[in-house]
Amino acid sequence: MTTAEAAAYVHVPFCRARCAYCDFNTYAGIDHLIPAYGDALRAELRAAPHARARTLYFGGGTPSILPLDLLAELFHVLRLTLHIPSDAEVTLEANPGTVPPAYLRGLRELGVNRLSLGAQSIHEDELRLLGRIHTWAETAEAVEAARAAGFDNLNLDFIYGLPGQTLARWQETLEAALRLGPEHLSLYALTLEEGTPLKSRIARGELRPPDEDLAAEMVELAEEVLADAGYFHYEISNWARLEAQSPKPRAKRWWEPGAWNLKPEAFSEDISPFVCRHNLTYWRNEPYLGFGAGAASWREGRRWTNVRHPADYIARLEAGRSPAEEVEEIPPRLEMGEMMMMGLRLAEGVSDGRFRARFGQGLEEVFGEELARLQDLELLEWDGRAARLTPRGRLLGNQVFRCFLP
Fold first, then answer.
1. For position 251, what pLDDT does the model report?
2. Rounded Cα distance, 18 and 31, in Å
3. What is the structure's pLDDT at 249?
4. Which helix (H) or strand (E) holds 247?
5. How far apart are CA 159 and CA 187, in angstroms?
């Protein structure tokens, strides 16, 4: 990816209700700001730097809370400002229960070709614990309606490691998810964030804290079940189906040399057509442009973040000011470390060829000591072409990542 290319992200910070575990930049009860927020987004987009956006992602919050006519106006401005090729991956996040069939048909007509549904659990008591306002039945209905609308690239999000969740219940969740046949699955360990209702309940002793050992078993179970179902574990928390029809079991290892019968330096897209190309941009630490309240951008050695609250974001754009609140210059050594930290989340790892092309030095020249030490600890594999986490390294990823940061 050249500096003229960047993934484009549009943040929609509105929600019907705020989930018990969420610390994202989202807000409930301020839907009256949506029209003004749409005006502000269009103003920011018109002033955006020129870029070729091979992926476009509407995240939140709940992007499906936006009416179709507002989304149509945003798409119009996006296409005027950014070059979005016809084969671009265009994703929109949605909550089950917020996407009736007519809305889904409208999304497809606008050019959305990938839908990400926040399912989170198949069990009603777990959904209530998380503060979700949908049911599992509504998730299944949303998938059926999305298929009828023409979506052939669906992601489902789930959370594991919940207080009181058993391994058997997690297996039921995985099996129910697979029956819906999604092309992609994102499975996230519950993280207890400061200031969230769920963390407060655990602190008061109302709920048992998550069991880290059990959560690790849940990851191992997911790896086994999804590998047998034909899903490629291409990032620590993400799986992509190998084939469009009739998935077949493949190698069960994270990345086994020779298992995929590919060129020596293979990448995730070579293995599955359903990997999330937008998120690969972040994991490869490549340029991205974010629009909306709290959205972040990174390009040409600079990172900037917009003001967080939607009202403040609107006020800045109405006054003709930039919404950027924080601007940071990224020195080369930090950029190298961040490329390692993000890239090691991927099964493909960090390519020595890509690293050398970007920085003029190879991995061993910059991180030889770190690579050797982590190999000795059996946390990292290094074959001269790419550095990759071992199965043990995946469970201790944060300890590995910090070794590369200055």
1. 45
2. 13
3. 54
4. none
5. 6
CA distances (Å), 241 to each of 16, 141, 183, in order?
Answer: 31, 21, 5
User: What does pTM read for this prediction?
Assistant: 0.93
pLDDT tens-digit map of 85-113: 999 999 999 999 889 999 999 999 999 99
With a cut of 50, say whether residue 2 has pLDDT above it. no
Residue 106 CA, distance from chain mean position: 24
Closest by CA to 387, choosing from 356, 360, 395, is: 356
**Beta-sheet pairing, 288-291 with 7-12:** parallel
Q: Are 302 and 327 a contacting pair, CB within 8 Å?
A: yes
Residue closest to 335 by CA, chosen among 359, 311, 309, 370: 359
Helical packing angle, 310-318 and 34-46, nearest 10°:
50
Q: How far apart are CA 405 and CA 342, in angstroms?
A: 11
Rounded Cα distance, 214 and 169, in Å: 12
Question: How far is it, in rounded angstroms, from Cα 264 to Cα 393?
Answer: 22
The answer to whether 152 and 183 are in contact (CB under 8 A) is yes
The residue type of 31 is D
Which tokens in the block code for residue 272?
A: 């599955």
- Give the CA dihedral 89, 92, 97, 98, nearest 10 degrees: -130
Q: What is the dihedral of CA 2, 49, 74, 98, to 10 degrees?
A: 60
pLDDT of residue 194: 81
Which amino acid is residue 351, in one-letter code?
S
β-pair partners for 388: 381
CA atoms within 13 A on the CB side of 218: 26
d(CA 140, CA 180) in angstroms, rounded, equals 7
At position 222, the amino acid (one-letter code) is A
Structural domains in the chain, CATH included, are 7-283 (3.30.750.200), 350-404 (no CATH)
Nearest in space to 15 (alpha carbons), one of 42, 33, 36: 33
What distance, in Å, lies between the first and last C-alpha atoms of the chain?
A: 25
Specify the pairing of strand 14-15 against strand 7-12: unpaired
Asked if 78 contacts 84 with a C-beta cutoff of 8 angstroms, the reply is yes
pLDDT at site 252: 47
Residue 211 CA, distance from chain mean position = 24
β-sheet bridge partners, residue 306: 324
Q: What is the chain's Cα-based Rg?
A: 21
Tokens coding 286: 């490549």
Q: Are 14 and 191 in contact (CB under 8 A)?
A: no
